[in-house]
């Protein structure tokens, strides 16, 4: 048995109380900064967590979001439901296949990109390969629909003209759902995820490469014996994190790819929860299904977190020296460079050409589209598609709504994130560990789709623009980036400011924020992209006149928006394709324009503000 805790004397209690009061007065400004962020976490993170109690209670409309009577019927029901086990199986299969294929891809890409000798090619590939990460899922699926179309799609035309194959209905065929989902994930996230590994590679000491070269190691041998072993701790942590997130599939993409024809393989846990809860309004049953998936995910996350602490205690070399070993133009190096450059050029084309194809379709004539004459350059140049979408009153309304959500949401989110990150960057702040646990726990276990929906409804936010702003004020990932960025700043600057009589609000505004430009630009871009690209939350929370442009595009892709009125069937079809392409270009244009200006900041910001340890 452990020793009993010594009882404090009255004098010691008074001294401790005095110390606590003095501490609270000294840091009162920092505690004041945390009031609104803490309220946000309590209301929008923890109340939905407790809302999962609905899985054990019968929900009755108008009688509260926590149900009226206790029952286990919903667990018994879904455990006997073949639809649940089909969704569970599909979730596991897609997750495993995605992990096997898309986990090593960013590692390979980062290693090869690091080997590129041509600085201009390297910079262009980095810029273009990161860009798909900032494109909306709606846009990605819309591009896939056009490229894979059985009648006018680029791929089917190629297969027919070169191999004489009959058209393949890629988006409807069950056998193509998983490959297309995984390939779209590769296209969107390979370049972006590679940043993490590139940052780890940059930290490798150049002495290791020089020693390997002196021993006669080729560049390929240096990759296997220096680069990969040096970044293995990063690889292990990323692997464990990915295993922990296995059940967290991008359900928005699955919903957009879902058709009755492929439902046997595309129905996953989250889409089942969406249909059962939000469409059929069987909230308790849907919450039970979501809770089961959440518990399995929590077990995976907790297990992977425990393993990660034992996986590898080595720390990466933090030297800023770059790889400066001599380069000998041997036949082997020339062949190696040629292969690497070809891979980079292929990556560049794969990431960039879909946008070029969409732009060409949007500017081509109906006749050229019908006759499959459009490739990567407009044929029969015209602006009919753009003129058509500009005649839609709902388009300008949707575009204006998107700007409101993006500007308002990003502003609120940045203020809340900075106000919470600055106090949490102070390890000596009383209660620091407790506040950090509040953040971390909400990362591991979320409320789920149904409890979040019921919370927003009970707060009477549905049908108002606040439903797109308040529930998404703080992202835990962005918060951690800001915390680590603030921690990396010299403490001497703050101490000098305090001596000169500047308070913590003044220090934050005059010193911390100006010195954290990279991290703020990174987090600001993340928030802006989220609000600009969001469509699912607007679908379930807003009225039609409040819809953003991405939901407008989704309705056009699904054929629920009017296109080409007054045209013949063939012209209407071709004009519809051009209009979809035009909406894709117009809806992504602000992000594409903004992206190059902030790109130099977010790579640095992600590296400086990355999760340590």
Short recap of the structure:
The protein is built from 29 helices and no strands. It has helices at residues 10-26, 28-33, 35-50, 73-79, 82-102, 104-114, 119-130, 137-147, 154-163, 174-202, 206-214, 219-244, 251-257, 263-266, 269-279, 283-311, 331-362, 366-370, 384-390, 393-424, 432-444, 449-458, 476-487, 491-499, 504-515, 517-533, 536-541, 549-557, 569-608. The model is unreliable at 313-327 and 562-572 (pLDDT under 50).
List the helices and strands and how they pair.
Blueprint (H helix, E strand, L loop, with lengths): L9 H17 L1 H6 L1 H16 L22 H7 L2 H21 L1 H11 L4 H12 L6 H11 L6 H10 L10 H29 L3 H9 L4 H26 L6 H7 L5 H4 L2 H11 L3 H29 L19 H32 L3 H5 L13 H7 L2 H32 L7 H13 L4 H10 L17 H12 L3 H9 L4 H12 L1 H17 L2 H6 L7 H9 L11 H40 L5
Helix pairs in contact: 3-21, 3-22, 4-16, 5-10, 6-10, 7-10, 7-17, 8-28, 8-29, 10-12, 11-12, 12-16, 15-16, 17-29, 19-29, 20-23, 20-26, 20-28, 23-26, 24-25, 26-29, 28-29
How would you explain this protein's 3D organization?
This protein has 29 helices and no strands. The chain has 613 residues and is mainly α. The longest helix is centred in the C-terminal third of the chain and has 40 residues. The radius of gyration is 27 Å and the shape is globular. It starts with 9 loop residues before the first helix and ends in a 5-residue tail after the last helix. About 4% of the residues have low confidence.
